[in-house]
Design goal:
α1 crosses α9, α2 packs antiparallel against α8 and α5 crosses α6. The protein is mainly α and 164 residues long. Helices cover 51% and strands 4% of the residues. The chain is globular and about 50 Å long.
Length: 164
């Protein structure tokens, strides 16, 4: 992770309480989707996830049955082999990775199963979804993992979506 992204992540972590409060208030606003979508486009025009990959290094996506079947087929193994080798069931009953970093993360931060990755990976960090107000808690948690989400939050807080 480069120094800029590291600083953004540290800033998000040191401002946990105010970020949580801000997101709760933001979730009540009608234009929350528009604000996040504009910030999402702006931030990801500048940020290259391959410079960070903190999500892949520290958290696990949820693997749905359809993801497991698709990935297993891609790897030429049975779904049961994929789950026994790489996954476990978490406290919520979801399939997640047995360990971090992700088994499929390469040294250069690319994904060895990118074309068939789980939907949760494709959608991460979920800041371009409709009905953002419904996922403010997830968005808060993502500020602690993804520097891009922290950047979006700061841009929205400061009233602009363009480059900082």
């Amino acid at each position: 992770m480069n120094d800029t992204l590291r600083r953004v992540l540290e800033h998000s972590r040191s401002n946990r309480k105010s970020n949580r409060t801000f997101l709760v208030q933001l979730g009540l606003q009608k234009q929350v989707d528009q604000l996040f979508h504009a910030a999402h486009e702006s931030v990801f025009s500048e940020v290259d996830c391959l410079q960070c990959a903190n999500c892949c290094k520290t958290t696990s996506p949820i693997f749905r049955d359809i993801d497991i079947d698709r990935i297993a087929r891609h790897l030429g193994i049975r779904p049961s082999e994929l789950t026994s080798r790489h996954l476990r069931i978490d406290e919520d009953g979801d399939w997640v990775l047995q360990q971090s970093p992700c088994t499929f993360l390469r040294e250069d931060n690319t994904c060895s199963i990118y074309d068939v990755r789980p939907r949760a990976c494709r959608d991460y960090p979920h800041t371009d979804r409709k009905n953002m107000s419904q996922i403010m808690d997830l968005t808060y948690r993502n500020t602690l993992v993804c520097p891009a989400v922290g950047m979006m939050l700061e841009r929205i807080r400061n009233g602009h979506q363009g480059p900082a």
